[in-house]
Amino acid sequence: MKTKQLSDKISFESPSPGLNRKRHRVEQFEDSLELEKKRLHVECLREELESKKMSNYKQRSELGLPASLTVHFDGRPCTLKNEAALLTEEEDEFTDFY
User: Fold this and answer.
1) Dist. CA 35–CA 41, nearest whole Å
2) Where are stretches of biased composition, namely Basic and acidic residues (predicted)?
3) Gyration radius of the chain's alpha carbons
4) Which of 28, 46, 85, 95 is 20 to 30 A from 10 (CA-CA)?
């Protein structure tokens, strides 16, 4: 009976400090692996995005469209160069008003 109580007591005691250090190192290693996995995933997504951009530029040039990106201002599509021209026109109108 005493042997069973003693074995139960030992199994509920905290593990040795050496085991805790090893467990902590394993957890750190697992965390670093997870971070590396996420970094590689982000890198793959960036490469995929670059590939899609290049494909988009090729398609635009084949269609004879400008290779610059298109942005929407007030719901109408325009190139960034046109956008800058529109903003300066609006500023001129504003200064003329006052």
Assistant:
1) 10
2) 1-11
3) 32
4) 28
